[in-house]
Amino acid sequence: MSNTITDTNFNFPGQQSVYKGKVREVYALENDVLVMVATDRLSAFDVVMPKGIPYKGQILNQIATKMMAATADIVPNWLVATPDPNVAIGHACIPFMVEMVIRGYMSGHAAREYKAGKRVLCGVAMPEGMKENDAFPEPIITPATKAEKGDHDEDISREALLERGIVSAADYEVLEQYTHALFKRGSEIAADRGLILVDTKYEFGKTKEGKIVLIDEIHTPDSSRYFYADGYEERQERGEPQKQLSKEFVRQWLIANGFQGLEGQTVPEMTDAYIESVSERYIELYENITGESFVKADITDIQQRIESNVLAYL
To answer: What percent of the chain is helix, strand and coil (3-state, nearest 5)?
Structure first.
């Protein structure tokens, strides 16, 4: 098996704290500098899988930084530099405790809820008579509260968000506007690659100056679902599954092996061959989403490489 990075323990100059998320580890340094390391951890159903996926962190980090550069003219973001394939450095922000999920199509979680008979998701009505993977008349925003480590994210309506004081009405208006603008640009970028951006999520924070900026990842296969545009209509007409570019293939494998993150369920064994196949799928995702060939970074000693590159930048 190739080397992977699933945990870090750096001590950078001026380091003040470390936050470990499901996939990313965020080092807060003095002067409001954040160093975000994308690990090779794989999370599904809000559970971190026991083994890392080779090159996954590099893939997510490089897609996210490319997409931030491609949207910086419409929405400001936190990013300043990417000194290593797995690392992004930017401005410290106070994150909003909400994920802005936007859906152009009825897929994934929305389709599962629809099949269960629900016609309202996060306070938003879904039309009758839809089939899985049909396009919504207009993209819908279905927010989720950001879970503490180990907990599940929770669907929430705009009204409940405001009622619970998770976000102010004025700030939420900006989050909605930015979410729609990013999804429109992301959909245009996807269309240029022969893809459909089905749904995605964005996270935002506020700088110490009070400016709302995009943070975390954007338009990656972990945060987004893509379909191949070619043959989409024909597959819908025939009632066939769509060809997907997203982490959904991992979720479907887990479901088929009796795991959905529910109490009492055990993560099925991920063999070396399966992990290698997931790594290959992520590389395929990268190349399709960016339109560029993936260049594998040196993974002889990933920790040492990251440390050297970050210290050289700082």
So the answer is: 30, 25, 40
Burial class of 94 by CB neighbour count within 10 A (0 to 12, 13 to 18, 19+): exposed
pLDDT at 222: 84
Regions of the chain short of the pLDDT cut 50: 1, 150
For residue 306, give the H/E element and its range: helix 302-313
User: DSSP letters of 35-80?
Assistant: EEEE-S--EETTEE-SS--TTHHHHHHHHHHHHHHHHTTTS-BSEE
110: which 2 tokens? 């929305």
In the structure encoding, which two tokens stand for residue 303, read together? 């920790």
* pLDDT at 156 (0 to 100): 95
What is the token pair recorded at 92?
Answer: 């410290």
- What is the radius of gyration, based on Cα positions, of the chain? 19
Q: How many other C-beta atoms can be found within 10 angstroms of the C-beta atom of residue 308?
A: 13
pLDDT tens-digit readout, 87-131: 999 999 999 999 999 999 999 899 999 999 999 999 999 999 999
Indicate left, alpha or beta for 255 from its phi (over 0: left) and psi (-120 to 50: alpha): alpha
